[in-house]
Amino acid sequence: MTFDEGQGYVVLATIAVPLLAALVLVFTPGQQKMLVRYISAVTGAIVAGLSIYIFAAYQLDGSDAQMRLQWVWVENTAFLGKDGITLNLAVDGISALMALLTGIVAFAGALASWKLDFRNKDFYILYWTLLAGVYGTFFSYDLFFFFFFYELAVMPLYLLIGVWGSTRKEYGAAKLTLMLVGGSVLIWIGIFAVFHEANLGTFDMEQLWAAGRDGTLSPTFQKVFFPFMVVGCGVLAALWPFHTWSPDGHMAAPTAVSMVHAGVLMKLGAFGIIRLGIQMMPAGAEFWMPTLMVLGVIGAVYGATAALTQRDFKLISGYSSVSHMGYVLMGLATMNQIGVTGAVLQMFSHGVMTALVFLMIGALYDQAHTRDLKDFGGITKVMPLWVIFYSIAGLANVGLPGFSGFTAEFHIFVGTFRSYPVFGALAIFAAALAAAYMLRLFAIVFFGPFDVRWSDLKDLTPLERLSGGMLIASIVIMGVWWAPFTDRVGQTVTLLPGVTG
Amino acid sequence: MRDYTIFIPEYIAAGSAVGIIGIELFWPKFRKDWLAYITAIAALGWLVSGLFFIGKDPNSFQGLIRSDDFTTYFRLLAASIVIVVALMSATHMRTRTKTVAEYYGLLLVAGCGMVYMAAATELLTAYIALELLSFSLYILVGYLKRDNLSSEASLKYILLGAFSSAMFLYGMSLIYGVTGTTYYEGIAEGLTARGSGTDPAVIVGMMLILAGVGFKVSAAPFHMWAPDAYEGAPLPITAFLSTASKAAGFALILRLFTGALIVDAAEWRWAVAVLAAVTMTLGNLVAIQQSNLKRLVAYSSIGQVGYMLITIAAIGYGDAKVGQDASSALLLHIAGYVLATLALFAALTAAYNRTGREDIPGLRGLAETQPFLALVITIALFSFAGLPPFAGFATKLFMFQGATTDELLWLVGLAVLNSFISLYYYLMIIRQMYLFDPVGDISRWKVSPVLWCLAAVLMVGVLFIGVYPGPAFELTERAAQPLFEAAGLGSFQVQQP
Fold this sequence. Notes:
- The complex is a heterodimer.
- Chain A is mainly alpha-helical.
- Chain A has helices at 3-26, 33-57, 93-112, 120-139, 143-154, 157-164, 169-198, 205-214, 219-236, 245-252, 255-278, 282-309, 313-334, 337-368, 384-398, 404-419, 421-446, 462-480, 483-495, and strands at residues 66-74, 85-91.
- Chain A has one domain (3-495).
- Chain A is 74% helix and 3% strand.
- Chain A has a two-stranded antiparallel sheet with strand order 1-2.
- By secondary structure, chain B is mainly alpha-helical.
- Chain B has 19 helices and 2 strands.
- At the A-B interface, helix 5, helix 6 and helix 7 of A face helix 13, helix 16, helix 17 and helix 19 of B.
């Protein structure tokens, strides 16, 4: 076994450990609530450790896919030829960064749900199943398994939100699930078409990418089916006008689910656009990217404008997510090295930042049982640490230098100005709006007249400090020392078809 | 030479059926649930004897009945379904009726009918097998004779069934009139010799045959009987109807359409495609409005039939390779569908034995009172909707992929859209179980060990096919092979008009 093969098992472990945790939890008695929490915390720590290892061990030697593990699943049966379906796991620069994000957010989310008491065993079973799906999607180099894990990540959301959620949870859960599965309908049709058109008898993504580059998937075909893939994935990435599940879903979801969902799951959508759109259908991408740019800009400006008028913490973050995912789509649509790199960095940055925001909202809501901005004022007096944490997340959101948001958005703006100067200006306008809605929130909640009914609010618990601390560390590290991030992502982005230097 | 050995498995099944009826006749005090276990053991014997036929050289009984891997596949499927349904019925039937021997006897006989629908290579034999299954089912559906719904269902089923049989027979007679034979091979030769000109007798004949078998698998617009029959029948028979009856219908369709009618595929393939489109859309849209669980499952299974019919259309549109791929995938999908349906009904039967309710709100709060059943039902429904890691995801993906030809991409798209619609009403059931608190008695209750084990085994099966479909897919590929290498059809060619 070579070293690279051995590392393949590390990649497999990121999927296997959460699944194993879910299985162990199935057989854990439901009354043992502390045991359930410990199992989850340990799982989170292991998963985070594995993710950090994968990110650190990714080699900067110019090779794309590393740490490969390949197990034949079905081959030479019916329409499946050689390598028909393989459990083909590997890591490239983009998925290495996404793995890091998932590890941190998953661990933070597991700790944040410590207080959860109602059927917490069932909660964690679904939670870890979801995360296994997320890891699987990031690492799959086989279209069958890519879609398998993608759906696996979406499926538990209905129950997670419906059972443990808050405001209008049934509506939010149903809307979110149906819209996301509606998106995967389009992906599914796209997969059938690609497999049929390429006629290679395999779901191996590298062979299909090659087919996309060398014209086996004809340019006309790519132009027709690119929108299927991109809109299908775009629903999950809150592509305007398919973003409407985001505010309702986030408002309804429990804290940890909001963290994982906004932090990681939405990135699956953008990741899918890279994998199934840019890499599989370069000709389609060339044709459709200007349209995606327009939609991304609309999303960025619209999300920021909508956030400006909301009074519910979670709605503000929901719309702010729409806005930030708009930046990601813009970055991808630039199709130049710096813009696409920025998009991937923004995926990470928004992931940790929004997870922190939802963690803080959860910490407040659990005590105050309201999320209306107007109910609060002068919270600095009772929850100073909470205010500091929230401010860091908010300032990263705005794109203040020194935080991850700046690094990412700077790359995106530069990339956009190179390709589409007008849209670059609009994007900066959206960033200004972000400053406006964040400062408005700060002004109302943190300062302003203190309301005595909040005088017994407690500050962050040690566990919340720990999980928040991890997220802040990621935000700051990426903000001040971004070379490890840009190097890894850049190495892969250079190799994407159609991306200019 | 007449080789009677190919009937041995059915001798066992039919002999046991007679024996079971005899037991109750001569020993009326015999415990009723033990009869169910005897039936299950007999069906197990049937299953085991069927295993000996795997991989044997194909054998034909006078050109009427073929014993090959395809037959074996459906024999094993039929025996497994009978085992599960018999075990499911044990408690359920004992508490609802006094005499049950005929019930279990007819279950075995119906299973034999299913096998010979798959094995028949001659029209009249196929017809007799179909009627054997149908007549058994007419009685089984109306078995709770003091229950008005059950009797009504049976009557409706008989009347519409007789009507469809008449159509099937008339279609057969037209085909016989054109080709001069009722043997599948002969029909294929006769149709080839006829040339490719349009002949109204052929078209009308094929359409009537299609309508006849469409009724059996409850394809819209021939589905009217299904919701009523499902609703009125005892729960285990509803399970039998939605698995065995449909699987048998598709076995007959596969044999007939690949063996006899394939040469004139141009005449019927568009009709099958339209039938598929109408069936899946109607089934799923009407399912949304149902409040009775059995009716909902009836419409949802109509939707499933629509998906399965796509493969038949693909056989008509594609070449032998596509036909082979599509039918292997169809057989795999049938296996996954049968597993999920039986798991669903095992859980529903357990819930019904406890609550006596079969409307959707009857499941309210099941996750609190009986989490295991709620889990099984959820897994079965997610499998129907085609979500991973359950069987429905892999099998549906394979089936649609196998059926994707240039002409049928639209239909595959429609099918995927329909699976999406179906998710909505499956979620409505899951919502009742998980999102609401139970009403009335909220204490945990226990499921009977038989039903618990049954549901657990079926659930593991659904997971296994969903996660590691390879071995099952290889088996169904072998089962589908005989269809496309049958004697006399060396050149599997579709005539172009």
